[in-house]
């Protein structure tokens, strides 16, 4: 039974799910708008918003935590997150992403855009 376990598994094991979220987060920070399934977008939203909140702190500790969350070799994306993306949201207390539903694709899943506001 899965009582009190509200995370979506997305049909993957924990390590695969972590890798998927890392890749989606990297793409979202780099391109600022990506198209994916609605379930993946809904799982990605809190992951990215926590990273942006850490980016607003601007400390070395926060930078290292974000870099370990995204994987080690992605220093250019971490730099973009701290220097560009988080500076936009200084006056905003959350709600950094927007999900726009595109509807059913015919393959049994609903597509959506997730973008930075």
Describe this structure in words.
There is one protein chain. The chain has helices spanning 14-31, 38-57, 60-70, 75-88; strands at 33-37, 97-104, 110-116. The model has no long low-confidence stretch (mean pLDDT 94). Helix content is 54%, strand content 17%. A 3-stranded antiparallel β-sheet has the order 1-3-2. It has one domain: Ribosomal protein L17 (50s Ribosomal Protein L17, Chain: A), CATH 3.90.1030. Strand 2 and strand 3 form a beta hairpin. It has 117 residues and is an alpha+beta fold. The chain is globular and about 45 Å long. It is built from 4 helices and 3 strands, in the order H-E-H-H-H-E-E. Helix 1 crosses helix 2 (38-57), helix 2 runs antiparallel to helix 3 (60-70) and helix 2 (38-57) packs across helix 4.
Sequence of secondary-structure elements: HEHHHEE
The percent range for helix content is 40-55%
Spatial separation of the terminal alpha carbons = 37 Å
Largest sheet: 3 strands, antiparallel
**Count of folded domains:** 1
CATH fold title = 50s Ribosomal Protein L17, Chain: A
**Spatial ordering of strands, largest sheet:** 1-3-2
Number of strands: 3
CATH superfamily: Ribosomal protein L17
Structural class: alpha+beta
CATH architecture: Alpha-Beta Complex
Rg of Cα set: 15 Å
What is the strand content? 15-25%
Number of DSSP helices?
4
What overall geometry do the principal axes of the alpha carbons give? Answer: globular
Oligomer state of the chains in this structure: single chain
**What is the CATH domain class?**
Alpha Beta
Instruction: Catalogue the unreliable spans.
Output: none
Q: What is the residue-averaged pLDDT?
A: 94
């Amino acid at each position: 039974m899965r009582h009190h376990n509200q995370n979506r598994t997305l049909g993957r094991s924990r390590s695969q799910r972590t890798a998927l979220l890392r890749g989606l987060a990297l793409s979202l920070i780099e391109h600022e708008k990506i198209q994916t399934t609605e379930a993946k977008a809904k799982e990605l939203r809190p992951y990215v918003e926590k990273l942006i909140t850490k980016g607003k702190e601007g400390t070395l500790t926060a930078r290292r935590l974000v870099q370990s969350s995204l994987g080690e070799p992605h220093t250019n994306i971490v730099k973009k997150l701290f220097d560009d993306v988080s500076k936009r949201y200084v006056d905003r207390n959350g709600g950094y992403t927007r999900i726009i539903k595109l509807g059913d694709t015919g393959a049994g899943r609903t597509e959506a855009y997730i973008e930075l506001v």
